Please model this.
Amino acid sequence: MIELRKFVAPEFVYGNGAISLVARYAANFGARKPLLVTDPGVLNAGWGDVVLGELRKEGIDCAIFPDISQNPCDFQVMSGAEFYREKGCDVIIAVGGGSPMDCAKAIGIVCTNHEFVTAFEGVDNVPVPGPPLICIPTTAGTSADVSQFAIINNTEKKTKFAIISKTMVPDVALIDPAATLTMDGYLTACTGMDALVHAIEALVSTAHSPITDIHAMQAIRLIRQALPLAIKNPGDSEVRDLMMLGSLEAGLAFSNASLGAVHALAHSLGGFLDLPHGECNAILLGPVISYNFGSAPERYRIVADCLGLPVKDMNDSALRAALLKDIADLRQCLGITVTLGSRGLRREHLPFLAAHAIVDPCMVTNPRVPTQQDIEEIYAGAV
Model:
């Protein structure tokens, strides 16, 4: 019997041209002065102008807040909330990857709850929902457009923290695969690996369910097929469509099943060294699978099957080796060949990183309960 569960997802519109609906949705939410939350890269790619053009057609003026880094920071959230109030905004539109969308979510709840953003850390700690939120993703990876997660960098503690609340599920996501055509190769690789990790961790999560499994399994199949092709043929709109669909499926899975140790370790690492989130996930995925495998071999067998491995005649030992090899081969194919050591990680950093990773909310649903020493050893294996 399936236990009683609640699942959340926003209204979303999927397909080429979805971005053109932004003004219609903004008007439906009664927007008179929306806040556009984005970043310099998205503006340079032209997607901010596309959104502004659609809003102008409806006679909607817009304030722009583009001051967001690759790992959105607490002070950027607070600046955005102050800017929202100063400009008299009433709706938030987030355009970009996970950084603008996570920052936009946090700006919203700060505006309605009048607290510093760190007050919302953890699960279900947001009393009042933010203003109406429209998310338009320009990467096929983070799935912040359909999730109840926001990840923010605590600059004082030098670590990321998670805010997980159903109040932060966007009101609508406009998911347009064409918006991913401007991504460069390395961004495509890193965000694609983030999406793949979302799906794998959701599938092996202790909070998985038959409903989330459907989305996670399909995401793994789609991403494993399409991601190498997106690197090889970046202008192929059909491949970009498959990647965006895979990212969406992964988002629907992990937003309801949560994640695991890869994300817990990546949050701690990314906050400390300010590294790209997807790159951290790609580096840590193999070591975490190696650590977790014995606690969930049948779940990882499903993962391997979805990746296209011939699992039928493999015992657990052979399956584990084949799975780790496939992940390593994929990383090599994508050009994510760096190590944590080359990115600045030193052994003296490990206790600090492990102490923060072990209390990350994503660790709660990891299939194996680690000690701090275990986490330090996982990091050490990737240095």
About this structure: The first strand starts at residue 11 and ends at 14. The longest helix spans residues 210-232. Strands lie at 11-14, 35-37, 63-65, 92-96, 122-123, 133-137, 149-154, 159-164, 172-175.
